[in-house]
Amino acid sequence: RYQQSKDVPFLYYMSVVAGFVVRGKLIELHQHCGDVVKGPPEPESNTRTKAVAERIMQQIDHVVESFGLALRRGVFEP
Hints:
3 strands, 29% helix, alpha+beta
């Protein structure tokens, strides 16, 4: 998830959001990964932030597979 900074128009906060349902209740994980600066040239910090997000998503995939569950990408709507 990208969320634009309220103070700086070209700065976005990147996080991974994962949700799952347990006994009818939605449980969500929100993990901040870092900041992303939009516009050229792309700073090296963007690459690191995206790598952190990718690593977290791979960890989620691994845990889901280890429990034999199905992974569905999307957004839960209340």
